[in-house]
Design goal:
globular, binds magnesium ion, binds iron/sulfur cluster, 10 strands, two-stranded antiparallel ribbon, 281 residues
Length: 281
């Protein structure tokens, strides 16, 4: 995929090693375009990932990056943001990483409203380990590791993000990079936890390009993004799937609340020596 020149400063020296045609190239391309259009300084960006084909993402971006262990993109990103709130912090996962081993972190990052962007590159299988059913695989999906079809009912990540009180929830498609760039820009600028589900086909083990082109429809233009009930109603629609921004409703961020608490604690600590002296007397 060719990249516009203005994204040059964000491309690292490590060339992506995903299979030719992998949806993740579209996500990377859109991400480069989004941070270029926002004119973010590379040294002000930090990206954390877990394990899977998606886990390689930070290596391909000229920014700070941390390729963590299974399912731990969100705790890493949370720590980075609390350590340096000035950074633009991105967490990147795949569907296996995010909704299986990392699933316990998703509700808490969302409800705390930590100011990070969480991009989940969902190909609905485990790609790195050669195509086993993942938490979002459709029921009945036949793969080499599930020759009689997956027996499980898939998760609905967008409805889950809304239920977990994420303050920004969107869905994009890796093949539609212009729209995805706009979604990522909004997610990055959103002051709070921004969840972006990106349908990103694994061309090698579960090629869903055609399927998604057929089932995806834009969110109606008159949708009220601050209405969570309407957002949930749109998110529940299946097998037709809506794409775009379901919900965007800022509220105080975790790091701001923590900073206020820290200030309060520091104030009370100034009185601590007097208090101790009184107890010791
Ligand atoms: Fe992409 Fe699938 Fe190849 Fe992994 S295995 S790089 S998800 S096409
Ligand atoms: Mg996957």
């Amino acid at each position: 995929m060719t990249m516009p020149d203005d994204t040059k400063r964000y491309r690292s020296e490590v060339r992506p090693v995903w299979c030719p045609g992998c949806g993740h190239y579209g996500v990377l391309h859109s991400f480069y375009a989004a941070i270029a259009e926002l004119n973010l300084a590379p040294e002000r960006i930090a990206i954390a990932s877990g394990i899977g084909c998606s886990g390689r993402f930070p290596a391909f971006v000229n920014a700070y990056g941390f390729h963590g262990v299974h399912g731990r993109a969100l705790p890493l990103a949370t720590g980075i943001k609390l350590g340096n709130p000035e950074l633009t912090v991105i967490a990147v996962s795949g569907d296996g990483d995010a909704y299986s081993i990392g699933a316990g972190h998703f509700p808490h990052a969302a409800r705390r409203n930590i100011n990070i962007t969480y991009i989940v590159m969902d190909n609905r299988i485990y790609g790195l380990t050669k195509g086993q059913p993942s938490p979002t695989s459709p029921t009945g999906l036949k793969l080499k590791a599930s020759p009689y079809g997956s027996t499980d009912t898939p998760l609905k990540p967008v409805t889950a993000a809304l239920a977990h009180n994420a303050s920004f929830v969107a869905r994009g498609f890796s093949a539609w990079t212009k729209e995805l760039t706009e979604i990522l820009k909004r997610a990055i600028l959103h002051p709070g936890f921004a969840f972006v589900e990106v349908l990103s086909p694994c061309i090698t083990f579960h090629n869903t390009y055609q399927h998604f082109k057929e089932v995806l429809h834009p969110i109606p233009k008159d949708h009220d993004e601050t209405d969570i009930t309407k957002a949930m109603a749109l998110a529940l629609v299946d097998p037709t799937l809506y794409h775009g921004v379901f919900y965007a409703n800022p509220r105080p961020c975790y790091e701001d609340t923590i900073a206020e608490l820290r200030a309060e604690a520091q104030k009370s600590q100034t009185g601590l020596p007097d208090l101790l002296q009184r107890f010791q007397a």
